From TrEMBL:
Protein name: DNA replication complex GINS protein PSF1
Function of the molecule: Required for correct functioning of the GINS complex, a complex that plays an essential role in the initiation of DNA replication, and progression of DNA replication forks. GINS complex is a core component of CDC45-MCM-GINS (CMG) helicase, the molecular machine that unwinds template DNA during replication, and around which the replisome is built. Required for correct functioning of the GINS complex, a complex that plays an essential role in the initiation of DNA replication, and progression of DNA replication forks. GINS complex seems to bind preferentially to single-stranded DNA.
Protein's GO biological process: DNA strand elongation involved in mitotic DNA replication
InterPro entries: GINS_A (IPR021151), GINS_bundle-like_dom_sf (IPR036224), GINS_Psf1 (IPR005339), PSF1_C (IPR056783)
Domain DNA replication complex GINS protein PSF1 C-terminal: 149-199
Gene3D superfamilies: 1.20.58.1030
Subunit-level organization: Component of the GINS complex.
Alphabetic keyword roster: Chromosome, DNA replication, Nucleus
GO cellular component: GINS complex
Organism annotation: Lucilia cuprina (Green bottle fly)
Main location group: nucleus
Ranges of residues in domain GINS subunit: 48-133
Magnesium recorded as keyword: no
Length: 200
């Protein structure tokens, strides 16, 4: 086997390693690296096609190991490239959950155009789903990504609401600028509607 055969799939593997090592939320899309991997895949495929045609006519079984080796290199390149793209998409999905429907500009510059399109479509799908659940009122699934530390929260009333009855039958008056310590599960809707503000 030639010396160049030892280098098969190195660039593809390097793409995956660089993405994994990156301390950024999402590093810049490596256009050149992806292009090099695609060119290598094309070159390997063309070499194998030519050699397979030669094998068909000559029946020379000494070509068989090299054909298999190149095919394995081609498959590895494809797997590494798909892993690189998949991991980037997973990070892009995480951006929606962390930052909401608008990506900060310092992160957006690292996305290529198809990734920006994917983010926008994913964001619209998630928003549409969140509107469709919760008895027609919708539920913001991105609000509490971690379990609450306490069952009660302190809230401030942003506007006059009037009487509010808790599940235990206690009635409280929600007046503008009044503060209350209430069960989280019973006031989450009012917090989402902007009537109450969670005091952290």
């Amino acid at each position: 086997m030639s010396k160049s055969n030892k280098m098969f799939a190195d660039k593809a593997f390097e793409l995956v390693k660089e993405l994994e090592r990156s301390s950024q939320t999402i590093p810049a899309f490596d256009d050149d690296g992806v292009r090099q991997v695609l060119e290598e895949i094309k070159a390997i495929f063309e070499e194998n096609c030519a050699q397979a045609a030669n094998y068909s006519t000559s029946g020379d079984r000494t070509l068989w190991p090299l054909l298999n080796f190149r095919h394995a290199a081609l498959q590895r390149n494809k797997r590494c490239l798909l892993t690189y793209l998949h991991q980037r998409l997973q990070r892009i999905k995480a951006l929606r959950w962390e930052f909401g429907p608008i990506v900060p500009s310092d992160i957006k510059v690292n996305l290529c155009e198809p990734e920006v399109t994917f983010f926008n479509k994913y964001s619209k799908s998630l928003a549409s789903y969140m509107r469709s659940i919760g008895d027609g009122q919708g539920i913001d699934l991105t609000g509490d990504l971690r379990p609450p530390k306490s069952l009660y929260i302190e809230v401030r009333c942003v506007e006059d609401f009037g009487k509010f009855e808790l599940e235990d039958g206690e009635v409280i008056y929600l007046k503008k600028n009044s503060q209350h310590y209430l069960p989280r599960s019973q006031v989450e809707t009012l917090v989402r509607q902007g009537i109450l503000q969670h005091i952290v």
